[in-house]
Amino acid sequence: MQALEDDDDLDFENSDGDDDTGDTETDSNGSSDEFLREMSEKDEKIKSLVDMGFSEDEANMAITRCGDVDLWELVDSISASRITEDSHSRNLSDHQITDRCFDSFGGRKKARLMEESKKKRNRYGGRAQGNQPSLDGSHDEPMPLPNPMVGFNLPGYLQPSVTRILPKQDTGPPFFYYENVAQAPKGVWATISRFLYDIQPEFVDSKHLCATARKRGYIHNLPIENRSPLLPMPPKTIFEAFPHYKKWWPSWDLRTQLNCLRTNVASAKLTERIGRALASSDSPPARSVQKYVMNECRKGNLVWIGKNKVAPLEPEEMEYLLGFPKDHTRGLGITERYKSLGNTFQVDTVAYHLSVLKVMFPNGVNVLSLFTGIGGGEVALHRLGIHMKAVVSVEIRKANKRIFRGWWDQTQTGTLIEIDDVKSLTDDRIVSFVSRFGGFDLVIGGSPCNNLAGCNRYNRDGLEGEQSALFYHYFRILNAVKSAMARM
Ligand code: SAH
């Protein structure tokens, strides 16, 4: 059961190319001149860094400092030097700076960066690697997923709640909340955590709160005491959520909960094939037929809608399971609806974590929402009764923007500012938003998981993958907000 579920509930997005595709590798035109090749690689790196929002000077200096290292090393190094400057301007002691920046951001020495880079290449090299020794002994530590995956605490779980004390400079505001798939390739969460101030991820499987699984990691600096769940608590089993499916549910289908809702759904061909296999079988069907049918039902979250008849969940049912209002995504084409819902937050889970903001901000919050999607974070805040004074929302897909804007217009009175691409949210624009709104109380978002999720075998190339590398924008933007707010 566990093995099947683990394999089944990993998300992947359709790579149908409607997202901004960013850079592509350029060919060196077959030139055999090593110097020219190096120059063009250097230009490419500079271009990528500038696209990420760093200045050309910073990019050049980082390349001079670090030499021929991977892009992520350069990001690391620029970030380390930015934070060092920032810390000096905030009068942090050198000791603090060393602890917080160099040790955690890895910007100390070229030799160390080269070593890290080598490890990194191995890590994403496609072959399974053993644990490699690390110079500081920390970066290659595997980040084990807890079992049960209930995070620091969950309503109704008796497990002792975790206590954590964050260093003062990491506590909000701004509070931040970052999300991505729990089951990412090795080293990804360690890297994300290292960039996000070494804060440990909170791994939660939403099946502990609702009727469907969704294993996610969350890194945030919110307090974890005195959380409260959204009421009414959502149903935790399939039959509690959809009692009418009992009628046709065969006794040999032992599922009580659904697997993770994904961006793609089973085809009509498949459900037909299942129907035919069952129609030509005994009742109950032979074990081999049961096994085949159950395997497909688990994979596709199929439900029984008639005699020998299975079907995927309707988008409306997914909205309900994920904690959204009815018809939230209605109006989009069905494929678009599945895609948006497959990628979104499970609202009850996120709301449980965000619930602590309610007493802290009785007059409402200013939110910077990165990779807003269909607004899982905002729906969570709204359902908690937390007023959003202003939301600056960054989302590239037109379909998602339409859904989010539609929901906002119907439910909210605050200010909504929409930006298409995280890459265009420059540091200068961030500074101007910070001064206009008097700072952000919450920076929330989960960057694309396309290159991380398990089913995506073709371009599962980790955090450096084209889409997943957008994580670095989350980190860049959060740092820019922190710096701008520190100067306020
Ligand atoms: N948390 C969201 C979903 C996040 S999925 C929700 O609750 O619905 C990641 C989102 O990032 C997708 O909606 C995708 O369209 C968006 N995205 C991808 N590239 C982007 C970019 N360059 N700038 C802004 N958004 C982007």
UniProtKB/TrEMBL annotation:
Q: Which GO terms describe its molecular function?
A: DNA (cytosine-5-)-methyltransferase activity; DNA binding
Task: For the region Disordered, give the residue spans.
Answer: 1-44, 112-143
Which sites are catalytic?
Answer: 449
* Principal place of residence: nucleus
Q: What segments bear the compositional bias annotation Acidic residues?
A: 1-26
Per the record, where are the segments of Basic and acidic residues compositional bias?
34-44
Is the Lipid metabolism keyword given for this protein? no
- The entry's keywords: DNA-binding, Methyltransferase, Nucleus, Repeat, S-adenosyl-L-methionine, Transferase
Tell me its EC number(s), please: 2.1.1.37
Limits of the UBA domain? 38-63
User: What InterPro entries does the entry give?
Assistant: C5-Methyltransferase (IPR050390), C5_MeTfrase (IPR001525), SAM-dependent_MTases_sf (IPR029063), SAM_MeTfrase_DRM (IPR030380), UBA (IPR015940), UBA-like_sf (IPR009060)
Q: Where in the cell is it found?
A: Nucleus
Which example biological process does GO assign this protein?
methylation
Q: What class of enzyme is it?
A: transferase
What family does this chain come from, according to its entry? Belongs to the class I-like SAM-binding methyltransferase superfamily. C5-methyltransferase family.
Instruction: Kindly provide the name given to this protein in its UniProt entry.
Output: DNA (cytosine-5-)-methyltransferase
State the species of origin. Answer: Triticum aestivum
